[in-house]
Amino acid sequence: MFREMRRSRQKLGEQECLRILEQGSFGVLAVLGDEGYPYAVPLSYVYRDGKIYFHCAREGHKLDAIRNCSRVSFCVVGQDEVHPEAYTTYFRSAVAFGKAKILEEEEKKKAILLLAEKYCPEERDGWEEAIRREWKPLCVVEITVEHLTGKQAIELIK
């Protein structure tokens, strides 16, 4: 169902791909957008137990696309060092493929707490108030990862 990587020597192992997902500060969500055009948008996220979570407004391009086609991909760049003298970058990245769904109230609360823990761990005392203030317009999406792959620059292979 998913293509094999053409440059298999550069393929990252599953643990390295998971590390990139767990440690990344942002990722790029790709969906099938309007009129069949791809739509890719960077966003904050959290990865936990085979699922990626992000929040957004209750309406917009992302959600319309997900409602029309739940299959998505999500890319996180874990390393990106430009080496101009060699005309290249030393990179490591992971791409997750899966199905997205909009979460209901109880699931939404668990996911938003995971996001708060990742991005605001020192502000724990303020989580409840911030969540309560933003709850009504808040939407949370879960991506269940079905396939995960990663690649690194040839120069990083040991």
- End-to-end distance: 30 Å
Beta-strand residue fraction: 35-45%
SSE sequence, one letter per element = HEEEEHEEHHE
- Categorize the overall geometry: globular
Structural class: alpha+beta
Strand order of the largest sheet: 2-1-5-6-7-4-3
Radius of gyration in whole Å, from Cα? 17 Å
The percent of residues in helical segments reads: 25-40%
Main beta sheet: 7 strands, antiparallel
What oligomeric state best describes the polypeptide chains here?
Answer: single chain
Report the average pLDDT across residues.
92
Number of helices: 4
DSSP E strands, number: 7
**Low-confidence parts:** none
How is this structure best described in words?
The structure is a single chain. With 158 residues, the chain is α+β, with helices and mostly antiparallel strands. It contains four helices and seven strands. The protein has a seven-stranded antiparallel sheet with strand order 2-1-5-6-7-4-3, with helices on both faces. The radius of gyration is 17 Å and the shape is globular.
